Amino acid sequence: LYSFIIHNKDTFFNNATRSRIVHHILQRVKYEEGKNKIGLNRLLSNGSYEAAFPLHEGSYRSKNSIRTHGAENHRHLLYECWASWGVWYKYQPLDLVRRYFGEKIGLYFAWLGWYTGMLFPAAFIGLFVFLYGVTTLNHCQVSKEVCQATDIIMCPICDKYCPFMRLSDSCVYAKVTHLFDNGATVFFAVFMAVWATVFLEFWKRRRAVIAYDWDLIDWEEEEEEIRPQFEAKYSKKERMNPISGKPEPYQAFADKCSRLIVSASGIFFMICVVIAAVFGIVIYRVVTVSTFAAFKWALIRNNSQVATTGTAVCINFCIIMLLNVLYEKVALFLTNLEQPRTESEWENSFTLKMFLFQFVNLNSSTFYIAFFLGRFTGHPGAYLRLINRWRLEECHPSGCLIDLCMQMGIIMVLKQTWNNFMELGYPLIQNWWTRRKLRQEYGTQRKTSFPQWEKDYNLQPMNAYGLFDEYLEMILQFGFTTIFVAAFPLAPLLALLNNIIEIRLDAYKFVTQWRRPLASRAKDIAGIWYGILEGIGILSVITNAFVIAVTSDFIPRLVYAYKYGPCAGQGEAGQKCMVGYVNASLSVFLVSDFENRSEPTSNGSEFSGSPLKYCRYRDYRDPPHSPVPYGYTLQFWHVLAARLAFIIVFEHLVFCIKHLISYLIPDLPKDLRDRMRREKYLIQEMMYEAELERLQKERKERKKNGKSYHNEWP
Predict the structure, then answer these.
(1) Which residue range(s) make up the domain with 688?
(2) What is the tally of structural domains in the chain?
């Protein structure tokens, strides 16, 4: 007490701190004679108590307006100023959130608010890239050539039932592709890679300011207690704790290694399950494209590839959601199998597994579409096949980017909608059902007279894993926003719109639908999330380099403009330099060279009145009557070399920029550093003055008592 100036003991601690103190005491109270008969958690685990939670401060609603009568309690104030949908455009009252829910939850909402604010420039630039594609659509030479190519007949994209088609039939897809794959795409990819670094670096600064304001700078976590499960498993073998000097359970190194190996094997097996699911989707796509091509409805028959992609994405989303349920159980089993020593070790291990499972589950099909779809199909007359039966799926004549855009757009919208429903809709339905049962059992009048603890007991408890689900949802969204952003510039805008809703939805859930969680302190976002964010930032640079180089047509167009087009050797690359690009990017195939199982049912006579002799396909190969029929042309090798060179240059350039920004942005703002130094200086001055005053008092007392000493401190 002597370390603090306390004017009023009743108001010195806020309610969140009081609940933490009470919980600290209850965790250490001995309730029975015996070695391990200590703490509230054991009483909860053995069924002595059903639940234990801090109480909300009364109702969050009031008959009187907060403007005229003020807030009745902090919960009411939080509801009106933070959780109400009408205040979505206002800043969050983070200090009030911290006082009511504690620093850990306050930091989550501070991070979520900072992330949402940083999405504004990313969403604006992404929208600008999209609008740039819209405004330049009519001037795009490639789209014009595709739309005017009524005389170019493309080879069928599947066996038997797919017909020959005019290249001009894919005019709409060529225009849509230009909206996302245009001259501003490379700039946006570089911007987003830099943005991810700036976001993390400036969060460090923001976190430092919050930690200083909330008095967390010098706070260190206490020595964590051993998990009861670990204690029960290894209680027979003990060794001295080097910090406390007390004996504690000990896990042998060989036992720990064997458990980690089994756990890693389980993780590898589950990732193989994801890959198997993606393989199933691939088989669905190659089988269904032929089925849709023979469909009786003209709308589906004429758009068989888009219908295949759309249905495959929806099925993939259902598989993702089903596997997520399985992954949670597997991750829980494997983490418990490892027997982590403390709760933080358990949380970090569980977090890493769940992130790996869900990240691979969510992005594996996207990686397939971005980097494998249409890359290993062979060519007409020599198609590569799955199990020597199914012909691998080809890209649309306008390219593979449209498939990647559809995959990202549908998955992102569906997943965010589902998450928002599960976060708010599920607790609302459960609480409504509980209130309905209470009305039937006690009547409306009796229900209103329930004490606060019983009202709170009828609310939903917070997730068993704390803020884990909230962080996981946002980190996966961050990955979606950055990893393939070169193919879908509208991803930051969708993330921004979702997060504006997410902040108020989470606030509403915490204030009205959940029991009040136990307040706890923290200096930064929980566990290993920050390291995962940095890893995603590095991965995003690599994936965007490959998307631009491999998936989009940016490099082939650049090579054509500088090497093969009308402006070859002139150092120009405008739209006039792209004349003839479409014809140069298509190879010629002799229809009589089709394999028997690939030969289409129609002979193409509907185009010219006589059977087709030649059709075109996307590739850089020699014509059928050349010395080496269907061999790669020189242009193919030029494009391949340019792609590899672009990947290397892009990655090195962006990584250099990222590291430079990380170096130039200090973790502590200058004004905060000065404030901390000033505070340290004042404390030293106060300690010196207090010590001087004490010594002077002692000296006066000695003189008064007639005692004096030589060589006294003045």
Answers:
(1) 678-702
(2) 2
